[in-house]
Amino acid sequence: MRIAVCVKIVDGEINPFDECALEEALRITDAEVFAVSMCPQSAAEKLRSLTRLGVKEVYLLSDKLYAGSDTLATAYILSEFLKKQKFDCVFCGRQTIDGDTAQVGPCLATLLGIGLITNVMKICSIDETAVCETRLGHMSVPLPALLTIERINTLRFPSIRSKLGEITVLNNSQVGADRNKCGLSGSATRVLKTFENSAGKRKCKFIKPCEFLNILSELKQSGKKNIKITESDKKLPYVIAIGDDAAKKACEVADKVETIYENDPFVIAGIIKKKAPPAVLWNADLVGRRNAPVAAALINAGLCADCTALETDGETLYMYRPARGGNIIAKIMCITPVQMATVRCAEPSDDIIVSGGRGVAEDFDKIHALAKKIGAEVGASRAVIDKNVISYEAQIGLTGKSVSPKIYIAIGISGAVQHTCAIENSDFIIAINPDASAPIFEYADYGIVITFDEFLSKMQ
């Protein structure tokens, strides 16, 4: 079996999700693994180091023409290379940590005309058919196929006696991509500006553990805050929304919203072609993040991922999304006739959510106990999910779900923006963390600086 692994270099290192994809490929018995990366030539030595791990061939696609390529243009260039290669399977990391879109894999599978399984947690078997456990359940697809891999392993170290091999550097004259579909000029989306992400910040009042239950009782009895929904003065005449959640967001920017209830991206693409709406919105859940890139590749449409805000002048849809792990917000537009976006839809939650992070991952049973005591739902940050402490359905954050409870209690959560952007619609946020400088306190209404064990002993 011959497996291609797509690899991206981010800030001089291999993208962590791609490391997991590479490790999964190397674990398959008798597989011949080769890697391909579309990067500047400065990444050559880092890519060359992969030859010490058992990667038979490494290809670096590097051309000034490729600079500024968005996800669809990137997938197109990779597809033109792979169409000239022999392979049985293509492995990609679920997403990159700089873009966080999870679009290249599904787009690439579509352009190659092969099967697709996303969010792979375990490869059960791979022969004539790939059988996998995913975050969407048990899935199988005939080969050739493309799999996007979650962060489910650790990339091996090279053996002491392994030797460096050579890599092959190819420019576009050798790849053979249509230059009109490459780079910034060939991309369907444009980044208009970026700025620091300060959304959701609050003025934190620090309290003692013994005050917690009284304040919790007061907040339960208080009225809900009015969450401001930004609506544009002018609206698009017509938008298609895939599902009810996306339809709610579409109403903010469109006079007429048609809701489509369909999970087959090929069928949806046919509907879009026929009706030619100015914009299509999808929920940025796992299904939307899988299907939207497939439809975008089928109709050659611009697609912006994980949008947290939308606005329009009546013709163009302007989309705002976190980037670089949520530290900045990018304002993006599509230049194609159909403008598409996956949008973050906050899930209505129970009145209280108790959510644990890396700091309490080893004692998560105590989170469950506290939640039971105060009548709360349990959530978790990605660090806890990655340790298989609790199921993915509980993950709150940029790559999980957004929530809007009346009270959100963050315990042992540092406050990375990729988590706080998913809780900013909470009425009240209480943070418990022993580090007084933890960023989570900037996003909390109330803060308690203490370890979780100490908190439990003193809150009585």
Short summary of the structure?
The protein is of the alpha/beta class. Helix content is 24%, strand content 29%. Strands 9-8-7-10-6-1-4-5-11 form a 9-stranded mixed beta sheet, with helices on both faces. A 6-stranded parallel beta sheet has the order 13-26-25-24-22-23. Strands 15-14-16-21-17 form a 5-stranded parallel beta sheet, with helices on both faces.
Report on the structure:
- This protein is α/β, with parallel strands linked by helices.
- It folds into three domains: 180 residues, HUPs (Rossmann fold); 142 residues, Rossmann fold (3-Layer(aba) Sandwich), CATH 3.40.50; 115 residues, Rossmann fold (3-Layer(aba) Sandwich).
- Helix content is 24%, strand content 29%.
- It has 13 helices and 26 strands.
- The strands form five sheets. A nine-stranded mixed sheet has the order 9-8-7-10-6-1-4-5-11, with helices on both faces. Strands 13-26-25-24-22-23 form a six-stranded parallel sheet. Strands 15-14-16-21-17 form a five-stranded parallel sheet, sandwiched between helices.
- Strand 4, helix 2 and strand 5 form a beta-alpha-beta unit.
- Helix 8 crosses helix 9.
- The longest helix is centred in the middle third of the chain and has 14 residues.
- The relative contact order is 0.11.
- The model has no long low-confidence stretch (mean pLDDT 92).
